[in-house]
């Protein structure tokens, strides 16, 4: 369809849409209309057609807009000032969610699914590339393998240079860089944090393209061959971003059993959102795992230094000048996720402050150079991080009636439910259909609830004073010897959960004696149901604060490689690995010789040659042998990195199952029960451990 035809169709359908949105109905008619709409949605859902999906998006948007129109025109009358304040606050929160929903539909309905653009056979045509690995206070244990993996990238040696950018000015890093043969760059100050570090390196290096990896992001060997091609095809392409894949579990995956089998928090962004951005030439630079054209950076004066999210702001500046951007949804590098919930909160807090800063100092809605689609994609990203206050409003809103008998929505319970039902059901259903392999229903509420209380003040302060605050480095590579409950992080969540519990009890009491209290049982039921849902989400968020032990320094990766075991007796046995890490390996036991003959070293038999690694046995049985690697020279460790972390297919994972909203809700409820069960179990085991010394003393006496 031509653009003219599309706009003519919109002109014809606009009056129909307006009638759907603004026509008032009583509760009975609205119930009928809503149920018919939901039924139509479910019938359309049987089709897998892309065009049908777009129709479903339009229907969902219309019903959500109808709900907001009704809220705006019929429910904002109040009996007191406090009801007006709370009621308008809730209405604004709903208006915010509606806007995010509409912008999200625009952003994800037309994803651009790129494939790899091959490089020409003539390598002389390939551009030169500088690989930057910026670091500040991270340990060498974290940085080492990132640098070694960068050296393993399959690219002509005369066209690839790797640089370690050390803002910590540490002698051990300089020695390491010299030992492995990479450039080492430092500077006299730390002005502008990471952005300043990168800009300083740009003055010293000369590569046509700049490839950036955070110091914990390990690249696969094919990274540049998969990402450089589009720069040759499109001379106006400034940026190609790839996903941030994490080979270590984030706090949700580590602390919640259910979260280990669902798409993680970042899957939605590094899937439909970035692919949708790509369709509108609005791909965000995410600070790592990306390639950028030097000339584009030079045209905007280098990496942006005005905000603490220099990455997204840099992309925005380049796009304002007409440069192109792209997103390749193939994980070509992997890094460490934040180890603890507290660190996760600090990191997300910085992201929220940074996006709020951009909103204030370089608002994408204004200024030249952007198309309207680009402006709205950036607007959605910046508004997304303002979810703190609206989320708090939704969690606490039922308390107004349950505890204080305040009516903050001027309507009957029946009419509220009649309007809200199609709005919620249809938006959940459409989002599940579109993004159900990247974000399961209701888990977004948990991710936001964990953060909401911590974002309210920082985002409001940044909105008022955008130049305040500084760049915070996220600690990576830490261990946790003993599990604990991080009450400090979830203190506000616990307080609200207690209030909701009291409100639910009060509501049930008032409902059972509604004649005595003179209340509408349907209003009570609506608020109690709302409070119960809020409590479930809150308790699931609180469960994330139950930190589990993290004692493994390296992450195991399942990979089968032919191996030879060398015993102290001089005998060797052939076998294969079942998993590998940078610290050790698990091998299939070829026989039971390992039970009485010491293992001294193993050979890993690769296509590129053999790696011999000194080892010591940790444990073994009839089926497998667990080994710990001994010290090895950097050249050998580089080869191990190539095998374990830098394989081309190292991070390619199968798709998750399609989301089922009811199953997802059941999983969340199970998570809440596990919080109580595991807490009780831990306390019981702790009591047993505490009683054991006392029992021994009694027996000794």
UniProtKB/TrEMBL annotation:
EC number from the UniProt entry = 2.4.1.12
Lineage top rank: taxon: Bacteria
Q: Where in the cell is it found?
A: Cell inner membrane
Query: Cofactors per UniProt?
Result: Mg(2+)
Membrane spanning stretches: 28-46, 53-70, 82-106, 378-402, 408-430, 442-465, 489-509, 521-545
Give the metabolic or biological pathway.
Glycan metabolism; bacterial cellulose biosynthesis
User: How does the record classify its membrane topology?
Assistant: Multi-pass membrane protein
Specify the PilZ domain's residue ranges. Answer: 550-644
Q: Which InterPro entries match?
A: Cell_synth_A (IPR003919), Cellulose_synth (IPR005150), Glyco_trans_2-like (IPR001173), Glycosyltr_2/OpgH_subfam (IPR050321), Nucleotide-diphossugar_trans (IPR029044), PilZ_domain (IPR009875)
Q: Which ranges carry the Glycosyltransferase 2-like domain?
A: 131-301
Task: Please give the Pfam families that the UniProt record associates with this protein.
Answer: Cellulose_synt, Glycos_transf_2, PilZ
Reaction(s) the record says it catalyses: [(1->4)-beta-D-glucosyl](n) + UDP-alpha-D-glucose = [(1->4)-beta-D-glucosyl](n+1) + UDP + H(+)
Family from the record:
Belongs to the glycosyltransferase 2 family.
Q: What does this protein do?
A: Catalytic subunit of cellulose synthase. It polymerizes uridine 5'-diphosphate glucose to cellulose.
- The protein depicted here goes by the name Cellulose synthase catalytic subunit [UDP-forming]
């Amino acid at each position: 369809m031509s653009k003219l035809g599309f706009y003519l169709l919109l002109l014809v359908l606009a009056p129909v849409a307006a009638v759907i949105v603004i026509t008032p109905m009583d509760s009975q008619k609205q119930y009928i209309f809503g149920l018919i709409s939901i039924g139509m949605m479910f019938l359309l859902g049987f089709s897998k057609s892309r065009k049908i999906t777009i129709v479903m998006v339009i229907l969902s948007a219309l019903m959500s807009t109808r709900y907001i129109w009704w809220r705006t025109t019929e429910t904002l009358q109040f009996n007191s000032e406090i009801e007006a304040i709370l009621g308008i606050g809730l209405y604004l929160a709903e208006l915010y969610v509606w806007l995010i929903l509409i912008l999200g539909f625009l952003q994800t309905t037309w994803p651009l699914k790129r494939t790899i653009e091959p490089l020409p056979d003539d390598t002389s045509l390939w551009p030169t590339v500088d690989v930057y690995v910026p670091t500040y206070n991270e340990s060498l244990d974290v940085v080492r393998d990132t640098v070694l993996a960068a050296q393993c990238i399959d690219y002509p040696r005369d066209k690839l240079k790797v640089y370690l950018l050390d803002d910590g000015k540490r002698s051990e890093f300089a020695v390491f860089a010299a030992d492995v043969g990479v450039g080492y760059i430092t500077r006299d100050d730390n002005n502008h944090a990471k952005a300043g570090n990168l800009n300083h390196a740009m003055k010293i290096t000369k590569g046509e393209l700049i490839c950036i990896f955070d110091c914990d992001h390990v690249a696969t060997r094919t990274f540049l061959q998969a990402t450089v091609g589009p720069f040759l095809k499109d001379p106006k392409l400034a940026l190609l971003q790839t996903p941030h894949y994490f080979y270590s579990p984030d706090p949700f995956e580590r602390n919640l059993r259910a979260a280990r089998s669902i798409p993680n928090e970042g899957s939605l962004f590094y899937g439909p959102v970035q692919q949708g951005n790509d369709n509108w030439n609005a791909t965000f630079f995410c600070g790592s795992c990306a390639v950028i054209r030097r000339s584009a950076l030079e045209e905007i004066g280098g990496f942006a230094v005005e905000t603490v999210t220099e990455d997204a702001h840099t992309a925005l500046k380049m796009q304002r000048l007409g440069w192109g951007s792209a997103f390749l949804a193939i994980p070509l590098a992997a890094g460490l996720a934040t180890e603890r919930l507290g660190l996760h909160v600090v990191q997300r807090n910085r992201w929220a402050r940074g996006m709020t800063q951009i909103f204030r100092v370089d608002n994408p809605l204004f200024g030249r150079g952007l198309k309207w689609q680009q402006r709205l994609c950036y607007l959605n990203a910046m508004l997304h991080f303002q979810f703190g206050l609206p989320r708090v409003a939704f969690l606490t809103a039922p308390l107004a009636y349950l505890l204080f008998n305040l009516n903050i929505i001027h309507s009957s319970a029946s009419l509220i439910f009649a309007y809200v039902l199609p709005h919620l059901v249809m938006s959940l259903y459409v989002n599940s259909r579109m993004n159900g392999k990247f974000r399961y229903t209701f888990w977004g509420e948990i991710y936001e609830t964990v953060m909401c209380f911590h974002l309210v003040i920082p985002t409001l302060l940044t909105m008022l004073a955008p130049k305040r605050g500084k760049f915070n480095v996220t600690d990576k590579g830490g261990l946790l010897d003993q599990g604990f409950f991080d009450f400090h992080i979830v203190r506000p969540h616990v307080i609200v959960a207690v209030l909701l519990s009291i409100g639910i009890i009060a509501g049930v009491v008032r409902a059972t004696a509604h004649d005595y209290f003179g209340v509408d049982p349907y209003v009570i039921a609506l608020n109690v149901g709302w409070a119960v849902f809020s409590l479930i989400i809150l308790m699931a968020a609180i469960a994330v604060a139950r930190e589990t032990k993290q004692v493994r320094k390296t992450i195991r990766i399942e990979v089968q490689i032919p191996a030879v075991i060398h015993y102290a007796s001089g005998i060797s046995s052939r076998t294969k690995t079942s998993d590998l890490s940078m610290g050790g390996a698990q091998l299939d036991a070829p026989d039971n010789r390992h039970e009485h003959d010491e293992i001294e070293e193993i050979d890993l038999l690769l296509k590129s040659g053999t790696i011999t690694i000194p080892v010591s046995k940790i444990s073994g049985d009839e089926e497998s042998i667990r080994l710990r690697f001994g010290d090895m020279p950097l050249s050998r460790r580089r080869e191990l990195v190539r095998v374990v972390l830098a394989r081309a297919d190292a991070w390619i994972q199968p798709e998750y199952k399609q989301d089922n909203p009811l199953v997802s809700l059941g999983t969340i409820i199970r998570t809440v029960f596990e919080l109580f069960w595991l807490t009780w179990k831990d306390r019981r085991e702790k009591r047993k451990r505490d009683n054991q010394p006392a029992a021994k003393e009694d027996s000794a006496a």
